[in-house]
Every structure is written in C-alpha cells, then in structure tokens.
C-alpha cells in the first residue's frame, strides 16, 4: 500500500442554485407550514413546456394454476397447504346441450331418444371439479364449454 493522501471528493450537490429556486415553494417534510402571503405568483412566460416524467413499473407475474382434466399440484388458497387436487366428474352444460339436441332429434328419428342419457355417462363430456384433500373446499372447475 502507498502512503499517499487523497483529497476527499467535492461535495455532491444534486441541484444547482437555479433548480433550488424552482423547489422553494414546496413544503419540506418536518418543517413548519409556510404562512400564506399576498404576493402574486410568478410564472415564466418563456418556459411554457412542462416536464413530464414517465415511470414504467416492471410487470407483475401472478402464478395462476390452470385447472384441467387431471389433478394439479398447487397451494390451497384456503388452508395454505401444498397439495395435489382431488378431482371429481360433475355434469356441466355440455351433457345437457347434447341431451337437448338428442331429445329434439327424437321427434324426427327414433334413435336419439335412446341415447339421451349417454352424455351423462361419458367422462369426456363431464366437467372436472378440483377440491382440496385437506380442507375439502372447491378450488376450481374445468368446464368443457
């Protein structure tokens, strides 16, 4: 190491004297409130452009689990346990629509009357309900429509 003495850096001044006069009307935190004066406010007629500062915030990523037809590993929003969802098949809108179509076609053809209830027995037509195995609350639903 050398024994040289270094001079300290010059003091940091973020604003010039001209900039300081622009901010003198703003209150300082912890300072007493200024008294209202009857002086007219001064506006610079030559400097008519106002400075606008645009602050861009980074995007916020929210992890949303998409419930599908298979169990999903996630955190329960009710009991906050890390779980794999329990799935069960429930009748949604699709089996009812298919049954209605078969019922209407049954007036014109004999075969659709026989298959009206089939959509309620096919797993690929039913909605999937995801529940938490710990607290048994519903977490989401995968709808076929």
UniProtKB/TrEMBL annotation:
Residues 56-144 form the LITAF domain. The chain crosses the membrane at residues 93-113. Keywords: Membrane, Metal-binding, Transmembrane, Transmembrane helix, Zinc. GO terms for cellular component: late endosome membrane; lysosomal membrane. Residues 36-50 have a biased composition (Polar residues). SMART domains: LITAF. It is found in: Endosome membrane; Late endosome membrane; Lysosome membrane. It holds the Pfam family zf-LITAF-like. PROSITE patterns: LITAF. InterPro entries: LITAF (IPR006629), LITAF_fam (IPR037519). GO terms for molecular function: zinc ion binding. It is a peripheral membrane protein. Belongs to the CDIP1/LITAF family. This is LITAF domain-containing protein.
């Amino acid at each position: 190491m050398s024994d040289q003495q270094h001079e300290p850096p010059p003091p940091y001044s973020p604003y010039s004297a001209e900039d300081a006069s622009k901010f003198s009307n703003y209150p300082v935190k912890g300072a007493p409130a200024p008294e209202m004066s009857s002086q007219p406010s001064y506006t610079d007629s030559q400097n008519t452009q106002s400075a606008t500062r645009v602050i861009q915030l980074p995007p916020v990523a929210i992890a949303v689990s998409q419930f599908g037809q298979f169990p999903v590993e996630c955190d329960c929003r009710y009991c906050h346990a890390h779980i794999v969802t329990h799935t069960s098949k429930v009748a949604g809108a699709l089996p009812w629509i298919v049954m209605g179509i078969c019922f209407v076609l049954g007036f014109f053809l004999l075969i659709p009357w026989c298959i009206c209830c089939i959509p309620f027995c096919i797993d690929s037509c039913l909605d999937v309900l995801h529940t938490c195995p710990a607290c048994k609350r519903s977490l989401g639903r995968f709808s076929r429509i």
